Amino acid sequence: MPVLWLVIALLAIGAVGYILGRGRALKSAGGDIRKLHSLPSYYGWNAALKALVPALLLLVLWSLAQPFYINNSVSGMIGDSEISDGSNRGLVMAEVRRVADGLDNVVAAGLMSAENAQDGLADVAAITQQLKDAGQVVTSEITQPVLAAAQRYRVMKGTGNLLMSIAVIALALAGMVWGVKESHFDFWARNVVERGIKALLIAAASIAVLTTVGIVFSLIFNTWEFFRLYPAADFYTLLEWAPSFSGRGGSSDLGILPLLWGTFYISVVALVVAVPIGLFAAIYLSEYASPAVRGFAKPLLELLAGIPTIVYGLFALLTVGPMLLTVFGDDGFGWMSGGRAVMTAGITMGIMLIPFVSSLSDDIINAVPQAMRDGSYGLGATKSETIKQVILPAALPGIVGAILLAASRAIGETMIVVLGAGAAARLSLNPFEAMTTVTAKIVSQLTGDSDFASPEALVAFALGMNLFILTLGLNVLALYIVRKYREQYE
Amino acid sequence: MTNASIIPPGSAPEPRHGSLTTADARTKKRNAAEKRFRMYGIAAIAVGLIFLVVLLTAIITNGKSAFQQTFIMTEVFLDPAKLDKKGDRNIEDIKKVSTFGYTPLLQNAILAEVTDRGIETPLTKAKDMKALMSASAAAQVRDMVIDNPALIGLTVEFRILASSRVDGYLKGRVSRESVARDKSIDAEHLDLTDALREAGVIAKKFNLSFITGADASESRAEQAGMGVSILGSLFMMLVVLGLSLPIGVAASIYLEEFAPQNRWTDLIEVNISNLAAVPSIVFGILGLAVFIQFAHLPQSAPLVGGLVLTLMTLPTIIISTRASLKSVPPSIRDAALGIGASKMQSVFHHVLPLAAPGILTGTIIGLAQALGETAPLLLIGMVGYIASNYPDGIASGFLDPNSAMPAQIYEWAKRADPAYYERAWGGIIILLVFLLTMNLIAIILRRRFERRW
């Protein structure tokens, strides 16, 4: 693992820089610490930071850019004629990488000589056999261009890694020398080090922005790619969802509407379960309950929020579904034909959202000023009349915000619908029928498929884009409402 | 001035009849409404708590049986004529004997148990015993023989796994009705199982290999365990901890202590609060597009899973870290600045150590959240294959394909054999034990170290 060793080497250089920088500063002051501008350790840190930070940054950037660059230049070696029907450049390149990795592993295990692995005239069939014998994953037959590309790939990767190591270490040494040279008793080391640390802090804070940028770009690029292969008008207006994986493109119907309907329906069922229960629980806990009851019931309810969604998914699939089926199935009302249904997923999701609604509403109800309650009691209203006619109207915007946040959670929830809602996209009004959602389809279109060229896989990014916009919109709206409401009473 | 002048004549309320101390109809109605409203609140809390109880009971009743497994205790004669034909105990020759060579020995051994005890059964052939034992039993015996070739020729006591149907019968999952439609086992086998259980040959024992073992193929539910995916989760959590703690703390320090009020700061703040609400599956899409599609990191690797979960956990950690930095009173900062510390020194030497317990608590809660997250892992390929190999080192632990606890549970829930459902529930118990432990540590840390100013 060369990167690990490289990092260790960098740390060693940093440590040496620290010792040298500190020592040099002390020496320049003749060993008298009072003559130094800063504490001695700052001179050390100055050298260490100058050695480490630029070098580590280069290491990260290089490791991100190198595969991208190699991929592009190697993929130029493969002519369009080499790409068979039903395949594409991405798949061929994946094969090239597999062969290259296979060769690496085989050489590392000593089963093949390094010259043999790089032999441009080597017998393709023999190499395929050798790789297979060594237990490497390769497809049935490596073609000559793929082998050549793989060999080129290995060469470029080897040179790239070597160059990277040299460049990174050289940069680190240069930084160290610079830092050590600066160490002199009248050098303002503390100020420089503090400026450097502040820059690092800013960089860390900016990672949040970078993440958003990453999300937006990865969604936009792939969605764009999808809309080039599949008309956007069809995507937004078709009432059918019927992807076909056999024929690539063309024959698939990929309409988002049935998925949005399923998402919407399940979320509504979930909110119908969660909002009354959550809201009444919050009212009781904040207005009626004694501290003892509150201290007991609130954490228990919030326990529901700490349970991972996979648990709720399994609960929907194996407990709620069969339970509903005994009541509404063929033995009961006969409305339900299978355990997976809108109701199954909706009720389970509702249970998950109860603590979410209740703790948010609790905060909001508690924020209503006591003076309003006192005024109402003073007029002779009972507690429930005060709640209904004074507190709830006052808290209404905040509660609406909380419900919107819960709705956004419900729309983005994945595991419960993947396990509990079914896989068939349907536009139906019967809540006991299986339907599917945007998130469930993202999972089913992207799992197990490493090829991102077909519209059937790319559609997941378009779905993700719509999901992202929908939940973001709901959140921004909800936060705006909540914030505006808070300001009202502050 | 009298009140009478305000009330228009004719609309005056009915004058009260009777005493103030006895409630009239209207008061009674209002009091009833009050009581009703109160009951709604109690009912809502009761319903919520009932859901919690139902959920926990479902988990425990369905999952506890996964920690027990049916074993067959039998003495197997390791026949040298079958296992080592040349008789010179050459390890290479012994390795050449595949599991097919061991299966008849095991079948004979079980048949011998049956005939020795004089159990009446229509199943008299050795082959009939195949349905009782797991397909993995032969491999288990073979591994033992290869480890210790001196065993050949001896009669050794083995505890081999029973087949998942037998196991299901003992646990009540497989009934005689369901067996009628099952090709792999007959009612006679169940009779024999009953007899052998009474004889003490077949028994349910605690199943450690469910916690430490590897996943098994779809047809060998009795062999599957969580061990490898627990390791996968562990490596993922190491990545999350190693990245999100320093980055999160650095970001919070900047935002809370140094950031000037400008557009960039506002943008960062808005971003963090929005990222906290982005559905987790979107982070999965990000991971797929950036780490796998663009940077070509290995698919299904805990490293990639850890990176995705880091991005997902960062907002949580930043929000809780900022709260604990904010709770350190400004007088501490002022005192440090007053005796000549720089701003940076006041933060790193005084504020940060005082905020550390709060930061740690927030980090542990963030990690617990990340540990239970499944959806992003599905997209980066941590399901759909069998996590059957332990990583053979630190590097391969981070880079080799692996599963994670929630992904493993999902994988089991998807499999057709109901025997896997029990495993999935059992897996959830293990997962919840981990989460509970982490949360308890967080609570204890908070109780022990938190300071109220």
UniProtKB/TrEMBL annotation, chain A:
Chief site of localization: membrane
GO molecular function annotations of the record: phosphate transmembrane transporter activity
Bilayer topology annotation: Multi-pass membrane protein
Mitochondrion recorded as keyword: no
Highest taxon listed in the record's lineage: Bacteria
GO CC annotations on file: plasma membrane
Keyword Nucleus: no
GO biological process: phosphate ion transport
Name of a matching Pfam family: BPD_transp_1
Domain ABC transmembrane type-1: 260-478
SUPFAM superfamilies: MetI-like
Entry's transmembrane regions: 45-65, 162-180, 200-221, 259-285, 305-329, 341-360, 457-482
Keywords, sorted A to Z: Cell inner membrane, Cell membrane, Membrane, Phosphate transport, Transmembrane, Transmembrane helix, Transport
Subcellular location(s) per record: Cell inner membrane; Cell membrane
Function text: Part of the binding-protein-dependent transport system for phosphate; probably responsible for the translocation of the substrate across the membrane.
Family of the protein in this entry: Belongs to the binding-protein-dependent transport system permease family. CysTW subfamily.
Full protein name: Phosphate transport system permease protein
UniProtKB/TrEMBL annotation, chain B:
Domain (ABC transmembrane type-1) ranges: 230-442
Subcellular localization(s) per the UniProt record: Cell inner membrane; Cell membrane
GO cellular component, one term: plasma membrane
Annotated spans, Disordered: 1-27
Family to which the UniProt record says this protein belongs: Belongs to the binding-protein-dependent transport system permease family. CysTW subfamily.
PANTHER family, per database record: PHOSPHATE TRANSPORT SYSTEM PERMEASE PROTEIN PSTA, PHOSPHATE TRANSPORT SYSTEM PERMEASE PROTEIN PSTA-RELATED
Protein name, as recorded: Phosphate transport system permease protein PstA
Organism of origin: Primorskyibacter sedentarius
